[in-house]
Inverse folding.
């Protein structure tokens, strides 16, 4: 585990809010000189604490009007079944997140589609035909009052 001090925590908090913030602005916000701030950010990147930077997209602007979380239970609990399912999900552009979880099902997916009809097509003709899938439960997102994903 990487040791993170209070200054590093401040850097990470600010960059998670705005990854495009200039080094000068970041340094001013956390109370460091620009050179010391840059060294710390570079070290956080080198140690793998900061894995990358992303753009936060407006779903409506890119044609996403339907978001759901989908739980998937597999009918076989083998490594081969999991790997086959994960390969199929990796090919599906509608799936923006795939998590192998504990509990009564094996996977939790975040699915983004243009609309309900688009989701239904994916649900029925892509996910529903995978031989590993035993159960599918869909939770439609009605709003996201807190969403810190970047």
């Amino acid at each position: 585990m990487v040791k993170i001090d209070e200054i590093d925590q401040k850097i990470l908090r600010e960059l998670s809010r705005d990854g495009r913030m200039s080094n000068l602005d970041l340094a001013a916000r956390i109370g460091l000189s620009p050179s010391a701030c840059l060294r710390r950010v570079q070290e956080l990147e080198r140690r793998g604490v900061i894995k990358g930077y992303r753009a936060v997209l407006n779903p409506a602007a890119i044609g996403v009007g339907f978001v759901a979380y989908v739980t998937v239970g597999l009918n076989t609990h083998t490594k081969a079944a999991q790997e086959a399912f994960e390969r199929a999900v990796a090919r599906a552009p509608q799936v923006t997140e795939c998590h192998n979880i504990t509990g009564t099902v094996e996977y939790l997916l975040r699915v983004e589609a243009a609309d309900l009809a688009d989701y239904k097509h994916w649900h029925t003709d892509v996910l529903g035909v995978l031989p590993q899938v035993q159960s599918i439960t869909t939770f439609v997102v009605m709003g996201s009052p807190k969403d810190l994903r970047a």
User: Anything to note?
Assistant: The chain has two domains: 6-46, 59-140. The chain has five helices and four strands. Residues 57 and 85 are 27 Å apart (CA to CA). The helical segments are 6-17, 23-30, 34-46, 79-90, 116-127.
